[in-house]
Specification:
Blueprint lengths: L3 H48 L2 H18 L5 H29 L8
């Protein structure tokens, strides 16, 4: 079929091609790791947020208002309250999204016969 010289040349090209594929695969893995790093931070932050007691979360709201008043003493409370209300739909949407991700991540409990 093929002379031995052509088979040797094809074998060398095959080795070079496999090496090139391995290098490109390594670059893709490295790039995917760098892209996924911010997602890992978000996931880690969400898991820490879930560990915090709900009472502490509710206590953080007045503390945030107090810190805001200390940093910006001349701002109007009414204006800040209305600007806070503008964020309610976004916060509720984020809460629902995290709640949906949490319910999908938990495996279904086995039923007892």
């Amino acid at each position: 079929m093929y002379p031995s010289g052509e088979l040797s040349q094809l074998e060398r090209r095959k080795v070079i091609l496999r090496g090139s594929i391995a290098v490109n695969r390594g670059r893709c893995v490295h790039a995917a790791g760098r892209i996924a790093q911010p997602l890992e931070w978000v996931d880690r932050g969400a898991s820490h947020w879930r560990k915090i007691s709900p009472l502490i979360k509710f206590g953080a709201i007045p503390l945030g208002f107090l810190v805001k008043r200390l940093i910006f003493p001349r701002s109007r409370v009414v204006g800040s309250f209305t600007s806070l209300l503008k964020w309610v739909p976004a916060v509720l949407g984020a809460y629902r999204a995290f709640k949906g991700m949490q319910s999908k991540a938990q495996p279904p409990s086995p039923s007892n016969p």
